[in-house]
From TrEMBL:
Gene3D superfamilies: 3.30.420.270. It is a single-pass membrane protein; Single-pass type II membrane protein. This is Protein TolR. Its main location: membrane. GO terms for cellular component: plasma membrane. It comes from Novosphingobium silvae. It is found in: Cell membrane. InterPro entries: ExbD (IPR003400). Residues 1-25 are annotated as: Disordered. It comes from the Bacteria.
């Protein structure tokens, strides 16, 4: 008493497991739209990433000076309104700036890197001069003061 797999005993037959149109289920996924979306997102992130470099939010003073080009290997020092000093994005304890500056490696040409100093516009001028004095004492003589460039 043998039973056939394709026979009528199991209710199989020709059309079993198939759709009416005679086609089987689609097993392939079209990934082209996914790739298109991912490439657009990649381009957006590549364009916006350099704009997000300023990690410490401060209110910069306005200036009518021309914008300078940004170079690789610059050291960024930021002073917030309350006087807190940041080395790149790291908050420093009072008196720690001199240690961090001493540990900063020199550039490929043996010179210290260019320093960009960002200070809040409500900050006391004397506090900015203290930080510039620390930079000068550590041998950093090329210092750029960052301002917010106005449209006028």
């Amino acid at each position: 008493m043998a039973m056939g797999v394709s026979g009528g005993a199991l209710g199989g037959g020709r059309g079993r497991g198939r759709r009416r149109g005679g086609r089987g289920p689609m097993a392939e996924i079209n990934v082209t739209p996914l790739v298109d979306v991912m490439l657009v997102l990649l381009i957006i992130f590549m364009v916006t990433a350099p704009l997000l470099k300023a990690a410490v939010p401060i209110e910069l003073p306005e200036s009518r000076a021309k914008a300078m080009s940004e170079e690789q290997g610059q050291l960024q020092i930021t002073i917030r309104r309350d006087g807190t000093v940041f080395y790149e994005a790291d908050e420093l304890a009072p008196g720690e700036l001199a240690e961090r500056l001493a540990a900063t490696p020199a550039g490929a040409d043996g010179k210290p890197p260019l320093v960009t100093l960002r200070a809040d516009k409500a900050l006391d001028y004397g506090r900015v001069m203290e930080i510039m004095g620390e930079l000068n004492r550590a041998g950093f003589t090329s210092i750029s003061l960052v301002t917010d460039v106005s449209g006028g």
